[in-house]
Amino acid sequence: MELTLDMICIPSEDIVARVIEDELVIVPLTAGIGDADDELYTMNETGKAIWLHLDGGTSLRTIVEELTAEFNATSEVIAEDVLGLVAELVQKKIVVVQ
Amino acid sequence: MSSDYVQVNHELRLMTGGEVAGLMAAVLEKKVPFRFTASGFSMAPFIRNGDVITLKPLPARLCRGDVVAFIEPCCGKLMVHRIIHVSVAGYLMKGDNNSEPDGRIPPSSLIGLVVRVEHLGRLVRLGGGRERAAIAWLSRRGWLIPFVVSVWRFLKPVAGKWIA
C-alpha cells in the first residue's frame, strides 16, 4: 500500500509509547507481552515531533502543514519526512492506517 | 530534518528505575504482562541476577509472600521484593537475601505482581499461597537464608546434579 498525504494514521494498539527524558520510547506488545529484552524503539527529534501529531484524527497533510509552521523547513522536505517515518512505522506495525 | 527517524534500542537497563517503572506501568495499564531481566542479588535464591521476570497487573488483593515490583518512595529506585507483612499503613517489603526490610511501601508505589521467573531458561517455582506465606514468615525473622542453606546441604548429596 502506498502512503499518501490524505491518509490518517494512528498508533497501533499493540504498542506502548512513553516520553522518557525527552526521548520517545516505544515498546511493542509482541504476542500479548511487553518484553523489555526484545527490541524497543526510540525516535529522533524529527520522528518524535511527527509522532506527537499522529492522533488518529489528523491527516498526514494537516500534520505536514502544522510541522511546517513549527519548523524551519519547506513543506516538501517535511512531507518527505512524514511519509518516510510513517512508512517505516507502518512496516514495523507501530502505526496503522485508518 | 533527519531521515534516520527510528532507532532500535536495547538499553533499557541504562534507564533509571523510575523510567523503567513508567514503561512497566504503561504496559500493565493495558492489562498486558511485562517481561524484563532482573539485576541484583537481593532476592536470591528465588530470583537471581539475570533471571527473566514476568509481571502482571496488580490483583485486587495482595497477600503476604507475594513478590511485587515497586518504586521505593524515598529514592525512586525500582525494586522487586517480597511482601512480608500487610497492614493498613501499607506493605512491609523485604528482599529475601537482605538482612533488613525496606520499610512500609504505600499501595500507590506498587507496580506489578511477579507471576513468573525464569532462570537460564527454566521456570523457577514461586510456590503457592501457603508456601509464599511461609517464606515471608522465615524472611521476616531472618531465618530464610539459613533455612535454605540447611535444606540445600541436606539435598545436595542426593539431588545436587539435578539442581542448578
Write a concise keyword list for the protein shown above:
heterodimer; A: 98 residues; alpha+beta; Arc Repressor Mutant, subunit A; four-stranded antiparallel sheet; two-stranded antiparallel ribbon; 6 strands; globular; B: 164 residues; Umud Fragment, subunit A; eight-stranded antiparallel sheet; 3 helices; 9 strands; 25% helix; 30% strand
Description:
The complex is a heterodimer of chains A (98) and B (164). Chain A is of the alpha+beta class and 98 residues long. Chain A has a single domain, classed as Coenzyme PQQ synthesis protein D (PqqD) (Arc Repressor Mutant, subunit A, Orthogonal Bundle), CATH 1.10.10. In chain A, 36% of the residues lie in helices and 28% in strands. In chain A, the strands form two sheets. In chain A, strands 2, 3, 4 and 5 form a four-stranded antiparallel beta sheet that branches. In chain A, α2 (60-70) crosses α3 (75-91). Chain A is globular, with a radius of gyration of 13 Å. With 164 residues, chain B is of the alpha+beta class. Chain B has one domain (12-162): Umud Fragment, subunit A, CATH 2.10.109.10. Chain B has helices at 17-29, 129-140, 144-159; strands at residues 6-9, 34-37, 52-57, 67-71, 78-87, 90-94, 103-105, 110-119, 122-123. In chain B, strands 2, 3, 4, 5, 6, 7, 8 and 9 form an eight-stranded antiparallel beta sheet that branches. In chain B, a hairpin with a 6-residue loop joins β4 and β5. The longest helix of chain B is centred in the last third of the chain and has 16 residues, at 144-159. Classes of the chains: A alpha+beta (98), B alpha+beta (164). The A-B interface holds A 16-18, 20-21, 25, 27, 29, 32-37, 39-47, 50, 71, 73, 77-78, 80-81, 84-85, 88-89, 92 and B 1-10, 12, 15, 19-20, 22-24, 26-27, 30, 32-37, 52, 54. β4 of chain A pairs parallel with β2 (34-37) of chain B, so a sheet runs across the interface.
